[in-house]
Specification:
Blueprint: E1 2-10, H1 15-30, E2 35-42, E3 49-56, H2 59-66, H3 69-79, E4 82-92
Antiparallel strand pairs: 1-3, 1-4, 2-3
Helix pairs in contact: 1-3
């Protein structure tokens, strides 16, 4: 399993448009083979900074999604709202603690 974190910074006036677009597309993203979960986080003291945090069965599954027309459409629209360049990390889990 891998984790994909993407940090995006948006123009303040574009945040609502981005969130509306994402609301329409999120079910198609989570339905992709290998996508385990998808979460969106907003920086508390700077709402223009939004992260997506997703888990994938494998990097191959993530890359297969990134090669789809869906990703191309979502990413093209998302980039149009940016105020700064996005940053992304693909991470392997080496240890996980839970309270359970």
């Amino acid at each position: 399993m891998i984790t994909r974190i993407v940090k995006m910074e948006f123009r303040a006036e574009a945040i609502d448009d981005f969130l509306a677009m994402f609301e329409k597309k999120k079910q198609f993203i989570i339905a992709r083979p290998g996508c385990i979960d998808l979460e969106m986080l907003q920086q508390k003291d700077n709402p223009s900074v939004i992260f997506t945090y997703s888990h994938w069965e494998s990097e191959e599954d993530l890359n297969a999604y990134r090669g789809t027309p869906l990703f191309g459409e979502v990413w093209k629209e998302t980039k149009s709202y940016f105020s700064d360049r996005a940053e992304a990390w693909t991470l392997d889990s080496i240890h996980k603690l839970t309270s359970e």
